[in-house]
């Protein structure tokens, strides 16, 4: 019975050591994950101006920064071109809508033609047939 108790005590001590080791590894992994989240936020917004990777050379860092700058400039030019095209389409749509509304207004304002008496007689006769 004493040997079982000693063996149980040894297992508990071993499990406690393993638990402490797992906790320290989990804390380390959490810190790394937080650091990566910070990097991902800066990289996702396109402003990777901080130098996170200290193991790369200054020239390599500046080269990467210039490449990102060129990509952002190209994207900006594309967006400006798209904006110009959409502005043109919007003006064309507004002009077309204005033309349609002017025609509608002239139709709405135009007086209705007065029917000649014989047309009124035809309308009365056909209404009496129903």
From TrEMBL:
InterPro entries, A to Z:
SIKE
Give any Pfam family that matches: SIKE
Which UniProt key words apply to this protein? Coiled coil
Q: Which residues form a coiled coil?
A: 58-103
Similarity-based family: Belongs to the SIKE family.
Database matches in PANTHER family: EXPRESSED PROTEIN
What is the recorded name of this protein? Uncharacterized protein
């Amino acid at each position: 019975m004493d040997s079982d108790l000693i063996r149980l005590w040894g297992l508990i001590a071993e499990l406690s050591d393993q638990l402490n080791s797992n906790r320290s590894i989990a804390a380390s992994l959490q810190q790394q994950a937080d650091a990566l989240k910070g990097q991902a936020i800066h990289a996702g917004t396109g402003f990777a101006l901080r130098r996170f990777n200290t193991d790369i050379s200054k020239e390599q860092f500046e080269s990467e920064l210039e490449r990102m700058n060129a990509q952002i400039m190209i994207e900006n030019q594309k967006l400006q071109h798209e904006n110009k095209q959409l502005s043109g389409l919007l003006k064309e749509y507004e002009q077309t809508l204005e033309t349609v509304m002017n025609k509608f207004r002239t139709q709405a304002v135009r007086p209705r033609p007065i029917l000649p008496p014989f047309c009124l007689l035809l309308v009365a006769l056909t209404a009496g047939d129903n």
